[in-house]
């Protein structure tokens, strides 16, 4: 069974530590070896700039991570194919892996929409408006003032609509979420869970979930332990509770997975790295028919692609 994973931070790890071997370094949750074991999988690679990088240097970090992607991933491993259109996925051969570039937060573009246009030309096909804090686009989830979109933020979403690519609302404040959802044609949350089951600020409340479903959006259930449960040592069964809850809200066609592998220091028992997707799929098959499991782990995100 094929896998679509909507979020990992491998590029951030490679940027932080250039000595990491992308092929099979044990420090990576997602490595080339692990990806190749899952034929024709699709992995989204986030471009993430941490908050300790000075504002004026953030665009340079974005460019560095894109260069790492092209030089250390695509150039060295031709079986990894950059996905720019849905037809690129259709052309994958049995041993290929699809790779989608995503931007996690618009801090680096400042107030320059042309920078976003350049990133689009380089292959970025999903754009998160914020990380956890405010930028010139919107407020993030950890801003106490809970501000919404700026005028520039609305221009950003209009641009994404025009390119038919995803507006990722995972890290937005609640007000930003609602204002963005109103105008975004292709909204997703690439890595968020259910607030009712785990009341973390990064998780979605029921009314947000239902509104996202109504807009034909996607939720990437994530494997971040503290987004999954407040109890110690979470397991796969805790992740399945979020899947089941979302299905009960009518999300069968709107649920996928965004692991956040390589963006987390602690992992869920049974989901320690990308290779655990095999076991995870088997666990899902204990509860859902194969047709449903295929939609959850792959087809729903594929069907949601409009570019």
UniProtKB/TrEMBL annotation:
Pfam families: Peptidase_M19. This is Dipeptidase.
């Amino acid at each position: 069974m094929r896998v679509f994973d909507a979020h990992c931070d491998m590029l951030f790890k490679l940027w932080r530590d250039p000595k990491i071997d992308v092929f099979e370094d044990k420090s990576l949750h997602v490595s080339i070896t692990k990806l190749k074991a899952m034929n024709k999988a699709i992995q989204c690679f986030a471009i993430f700039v941490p908050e300790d990088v000075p504002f004026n240097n953030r665009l340079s970090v974005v460019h560095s991570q894109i260069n790492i992607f092209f030089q250390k991933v695509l150039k060295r491993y031709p079986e990894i194919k950059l996905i720019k259109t849905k037809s690129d996925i259709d052309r994958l051969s049995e041993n290929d892996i699809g790779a989608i570039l995503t931007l996690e937060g618009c801090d680096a573009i400042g107030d320059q929409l042309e920078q976003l246009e350049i990133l689009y030309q380089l292959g970025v096909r999903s754009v998160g408006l914020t990380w956890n804090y405010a930028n010139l686009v919107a407020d993030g989830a950890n801003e106490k003032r809970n501000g919404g979109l700026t005028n520039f933020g609305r221009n950003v979403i209009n641009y994404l609509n025009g390119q038919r690519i995803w507006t990722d609302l995972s890290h937005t404040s609640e007000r930003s979420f609602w204002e963005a959802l109103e105008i975004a044609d292709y909204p997703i949350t690439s890595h968020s869970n259910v607030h009712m089951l785990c009341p973390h600020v990064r998780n979605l409340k029921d009314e947000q979930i239902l509104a996202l479903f109504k807009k034909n959006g996607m939720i990437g259930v994530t494997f971040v332990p503290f987004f999954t449960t407040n109890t110690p040592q979470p397991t796969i069964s805790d992740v399945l509770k979020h899947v089941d809850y979302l299905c009960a809200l009518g999300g069968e066609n709107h649920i996928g997975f965004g692991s956040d592998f390589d963006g987390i220091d602690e992992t869920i028992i049974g989901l320690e790295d990308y290779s655990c997707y095999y076991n995870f799929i088997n666990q899902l098959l204990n509860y859902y028919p194969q047709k449903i499991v295929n939609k959850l782990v792959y087809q729903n995100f594929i069907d949601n692609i409009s570019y």
